[in-house]
Structures are given as structure tokens and as C-alpha cells.
Amino acid sequence: MSIHRLISLGFFAVLLAAAPLNYIPGITDADGVAFGVFALDIFDDALHLASAAWALAAALVSARASRMFLLIFGSFYFADGVMGLITGSGYLDFGNFTYGVQDLPLGFKIMANLPHIGLGGVALLSGLFLGRAR
Questions:
Q1: Quick one: 23 exposed, middle or buried, by C-beta within 10 A (0-12, 13-18, 19+)?
Q2: b/e map of 66-94 (b: 16 or more CB within 10 Å)?
Q3: How far apart are CA 79 and CA 76, in angstroms?
Q4: According to a count of CB atoms within 10 Å of the terminal CB, is the N or C end of the chain lower?
Q5: What is the 3-state secondary structure (H, E, C) of 39-63?
Q6: DSSP-based three-state secondary structure for 28
Q7: What are the pLDDT digits (tens) for 14-45?
Q8: Which ranges in the chain belong to alpha helices (H)?
Q9: Vertex 83: Cα angle to 119 and 9 (nearest 5)
Q10: pTM to 2 decimal places
Q11: Is 126 helix (H, G, I), strand (E, B) or coil?
Q12: Are 47 and 92 in contact (CB under 8 A)?
């Protein structure tokens, strides 16, 4: 199995684990905020599940499909995290339309957007630089 397919399977597992976070007792507080940072809703859950399904489908289809998943998914998630870091709202959950630019503490914006920056960055770099013929 190619490195791209294995990484796509890893993304499937991570994204599948992210979807039910709001439904595990003790992870969210009384306000429904996971880990004191993430206010996930049903739309976020659906996005994570759809991304997980896409990662699994790509891994099962081919190395080329997996690489394309990593490049496209990585670009979208990384850009969403950077936008969230700059404006306080990302676009994947339509937060930039719903909330607009938010005046949030920098530390909070970093913590809230680090998962998308990290996941997107790893996916994008993996698609760009791993497993390519030299």
C-alpha cells in the first residue's frame, strides 16, 4: 500500500474520531464547547464525517486518488485554519458569513484553528512531497 493511501487511512481515522466529540460526556462543558475551545455543531460533525468518507474512499480507490485527496483536502483545511487565525472565522463551516470578523484573543484563535492548520498542512505537504518519483 502506498504512503498516500496509508496517510489517507490515517486521516479517515482522525476525522471519524473528531465527529462525535460533542456527544462524549465530559469532553464538552455546559455551553457545548469541546475542550474549552471548539463550539462544534451538527454542520461541523457532517463536514468531518464527509471528509472521513472522502479519505476512506480515496484510500480504497488508488494511490493517485489518495494523493488528490491529500492535496485538495489539505488546501481547503489549511486555508480555513489560516483564515480563522486571521479573522476569527473560517469558511468551511460558513463562520465567515455567519459571524464575520471576530475580535478574539490571539491565543484563542491559535488554539481554535490549530487542528485545521495542522491537519491541512500535513495533508498538503504529504501530497506534495511524499511518495513522488524523483
A1: exposed
A2: bbbbbbebbebbbbbbbbbbebbbbebbe
A3: 5
A4: C
A5: CCCHHHHHHHHHHHHHHHHHHHHCH
A6: strand
A7: 999 988 888 877 888 777 777 777 777 788 88
A8: 3-18, 42-61, 63-87, 95-98, 106-129
A9: 15
A10: 0.87
A11: helix
A12: yes
**Measured CA distances, 134 to 42, 75, 101, 102, 131 (Å):** 43, 23, 43, 45, 9
67 vs 134, residue with greater confidence:
67
Q: Going by C-beta distance under 8 Å and a sequence separation of 6 or more, which residues neighbour residue 1? A: none
Q: How many angstroms separate the CA atoms of 65 and 67, rounded?
A: 5
Cell digits for 55? 479519505
The letter for the amino acid at 35 is F
